[in-house]
Design goal:
Layout lengths: L6 E10 L2 E10 L8 E7 L10 H10 L3 E5 L17 H16 L4 E11 L1 H11 L6 E5 L5 H8 L1 H19 L6 E5 L6 E3 L4 H11 L10 E3 L22 E6 L7 H9 L4 E6 L12 H15 L4
Parallel strand pairs: 3-4, 3-5, 5-6, 6-10, 7-8, 10-11
Antiparallel strand pairs: 1-2, 2-4, 7-9
Amino acid sequence: MPTDIEYTRVEETFTSEGVTCAATVYRPGTASPGNRTPVIVMAHGFGGVRALRLPAYAELFAAAGYVVMLFDYRYFGDSEGEPRQLLDVASQLADWRAAIAFARTIDVADPDTVVAWGTSFAGGHVITTAGSGERLAAIIAQVPHVSGPAAVRATGIRRALRIAPVALADTVAALLHRAPRYVASIGPEGSAAVMSAPGAEEAFERLVTESGIRRGEYAETVAARIALRIGLYSPARSAARVRCPALIQVATGDTIAPAAAATRAARSMPDATVLTYEGGHFDPYVAPLFPAVVADQLAFLRTVAPVD
């Protein structure tokens, strides 16, 4: 497969349940309305935005001949929606369905060959989406969140207790239709952040730097109520209903989305490939692991959604 194809990049929008969501579409020069090309739909994980390292993947996929679409969930990044930084699982799953529907309408995309690519929390979303019956050629789930209880155990009781008061306050605020109470989505070890595992903030800092953006350019908070709901969201429950080919990529030292839980979920899928890498949750996004992770994704794509 060629990996030096020229491509264009265009900012677009689509609508999800009446809310305008921002998207970036990459069109390889080899694609045309008369030569429809497989399309990869991509979104980020917990509180993440498409500008955060996803273009590095998209550029390589487009250079290999794929149409690629990145999108921001409602309430996050460049998408619309109020209140800001509200992570609602049902809304994000609806955004995935709307994004896939929009991707099928891209002028050079093959509507019958759509691959859903998700990382971290979105890795769980693509499993749930595929398991709900969405017609997909394949899914790629990188360091996916698959088990709410496993994620809570990985967080640890002390960290959970630090977040609990503001999470409860935000839940009450939601019931009273008041403005959200926010918590940091990532922070130093021991802080009252949703992700504060040892080394997480340092790894995230590098991810931001490699993305060519600055800390604070995009909000790094989330409405705190999600901390009480993470334990209830287990995409592994949908794993047995995933009928399309699936690539599940896990990191052995992942203290946010434990590899063991993802591996168990993959065993329930009729057609899953599990690849394991030495590293932590944020390592697949950057060197030295990034090239191997993307090479494996491209090899998988060549099999399940080849381009001419």
